[in-house]
Amino acid sequence: MEGTKPKTVEDVETVDVYTAKGFLSTGHRYLDVRTNEEFAKSHVEDALNIPYMFQTNEGEVINPDFLPQVASVCKKDEHMIVACNAGGRGSRACVDLLNAGYEHVANMGGGYSAWVDAGFAGDKPPEDLKIACKFRPKEN
After folding, report:
1. Which residue among 13, 31, 51, 59 is least crowded, i.e. fewest CB within 10 A of its CB?
2. 79 close to 104: Cβ distance less than 8 angstroms
3. How many whole angstroms separate alpha carbon 2 and alpha carbon 89?
């Protein structure tokens, strides 16, 4: 049965920031899965912040309360745009949400960094609005 097959990253719908902005104007919720520190620096207006991962002394760990925290504020049939800083955590969070029965989730490609780069975050310089991604190697 197809309904019992676990979802993977390949099953995640990814939308660009322009499509995401359009969806938000029609009532989709914005679920920001970045850390509290990243969210505090700058975020999409009316975003919900539920971190998907935490940085610990042992490295990155998935928030063990992620799904219960989402369930406390979102219904499984709600339409959601999920985003992190660059897209990686967002797509993994979407997989977990889909496997938990959420029906309408889409990852925002490029994450909040793409939102800022598209000029949707205001007039401040990008470096004042976003944080370098801790969960991806730096490019040389």
Report:
1. 59
2. yes
3. 25
Question: Would you write out the chain's pLDDT as a tens digit for each of its 140 residues?
Answer: 455 789 999 999 999 999 999 999 999 999 999 999 999 989 999 999 999 999 889 888 999 999 999 999 999 999 999 999 998 999 999 999 999 999 999 999 999 999 998 989 876 666 666 665 444 433 43
State whether residue 14 is helix, strand or coil. Answer: strand
Run of H or E including 79: strand 79-83
Closest by CA to 53, choosing from 67, 38, 66, is 66
Q: Does the pTM exceed 0.70?
A: yes
Active-site pick, 74, 84, 94, 133? 84
CA–CA separation, 115 vs 83, rounded Å?
Answer: 10
84 in catalytic set: yes
